[in-house]
Design brief:
6-stranded parallel β-sheet, 9-stranded mixed β-sheet, globular, 13 helices, Rossmann fold, alpha/beta, Dihydrodipicolinate Reductase, domain 2
Length: 360
């Protein structure tokens, strides 16, 4: 049996996401991380030395131009996702990108068009759908069912979880938005995955940035107050009603901060005609996160299936990406489903800004 030619990967980004990408790719047999790019010179040198990466670059353009790369992995501030992906796809490289796909729907469409035109894989790091509790719920819906799902309540709420009051996360130019574009992609992706990929047809949304501007809600309590820095340009809470093409609806709330009991709570509640399922994950809990509500022999019962979430979803989604690249069958992997998620988030921002329902 012949050994496949090693896939050569270049990673752009030196933070938590970039390090996770680097280690995940490096842990797959037959995959080599051969290039790394980032602006923080000491960190670049440290990661290069620790992981034996021969090609180190301060500028992402130099990495993308390398002729012998197969994959470019993007783990940068959101504003760079589009430019890096477009350049990489144009040069014939596959792209793995952190969420969100892009700042805007228009930019995301251009990225997906480039993936189709160059016939290269474009994948986004939607790792939350790979959680064991989400996968369990998907199987339960397939094998047992809860009747027609007519409404979903979905949220990710934090009490003090603004990632950086003075960082790129709170810059409209760099991030494109706040809590909604940061946490929203994971929740929206998981819900659409559970529902079997319906299309969102209309959204009505509001956004608020009161706490961040007042200096509350920092994940790191030692940070400079946002009210002093003047850098909090985004929302710390977004709420939306999404209408689906099958007549169902989604109540969607995402918040970085709030004077509330919520700490770091993720919740997805599916309401079906015959039963309901709720996934509730406080503080990234790895067990006892699923409840099923249904009638059995005329009695209301609550089922608590034993589901253990071992973690490691990021390496899993990267391994799946590598499998797709190796398969050579890329027609269904040009980023189209990720584009729909960006279109929904973009419509939420437009709805909030214009004070009206927006159709997709």
């Amino acid at each position: 049996m012949t050994t496949p030619t090693p896939l050569r990967v270049g990673v752009v980004g030196l933070g938590y996401a970039g390090t996770t990408h680097l280690e995940s790719f490096a842990g797959i047999p037959g995959v080599e991380v051969v290039a790394l790019a980032g602006k923080e010179a000491p960190r670049l040198a440290e990661l290069g030395a620790t992981h034996g990466i021969p090609s180190l670059h301060a500028d992402w353009e130099e990495l993308v131009d390398l002729p012998d790369l197969d994959i470019v992995s993007i783990a940068t501030p959101n504003v760079l996702h589009g430019p890096i992906a477009l350049a990489a796809l144009a040069s014939g490289k596959h792209v793995f990108c952190e969420k969100p796909l892009a700042l805007t729907a228009a930019e995301a469409r251009a990225m997906v068009a480039a993936a189709h035109e160059n016939d290269r894989v474009l994948e986004v790091a939607f790792n939350h759908r790979r959680r064991a509790d989400v996968q369990f719920a998907r199987r339960y819906l397939d094998e047992t069912g809860i009747g027609r799902i007519y409404h979903v309540r979905a949220s990710w709420k934090r009490r003090s979880g603004i990632p950086g009051l003075t960082s790129w996360f709170t810059s409209k130019t760099m991030a494109g938005g706040g809590a909604l574009i940061d946490l929203g992609p994971h929740v929206l992706d998981s819900v659409l995955f559970l529902l079997g990929e319906p299309r969102v047809t209309a959204v009505s949304a509001v956004t608020h940035g009161e706490l961040g501007r007042a200096g509350y809600g920092a994940m790191n309590r030692q940070e400079q107050m946002a009210s002093e820095s003047g850098l909090f340009e985004v929302e710390d809470l977004a709420s939306a009603l999404l209408r689906l093409d099958d007549g169902a609806s989604i109540a969607f709330e995402i918040s970085w901060a709030g004077h509330t009991v919520d700490d770091e709570d993720i919740s997805i509640e599916l309401l079906g005609v015959d039963a309901g399922i709720r996934i509730f994950v406080p503080r990234y809990r790895g067990e006892d996160t699923v409840r099923i509500y249904r009638d059995v022999d005329g009695e209301e019962v609550t089922l608590a299936p034993e589901v253990i979430v071992p973690g490691g979803e990021h390496p899993l989604v990267i391994a799946e990406f590598v499998d797709v690249v190796r398969s050579g069958d890329w027609a269904a992997h040009h980023g189209d489903f990720a584009l729909h998620r960006t279109e929904v988030l973009d419509a939420c921002y437009r709805s909030a800004a214009e004070g009206r329902e927006v159709t997709l």
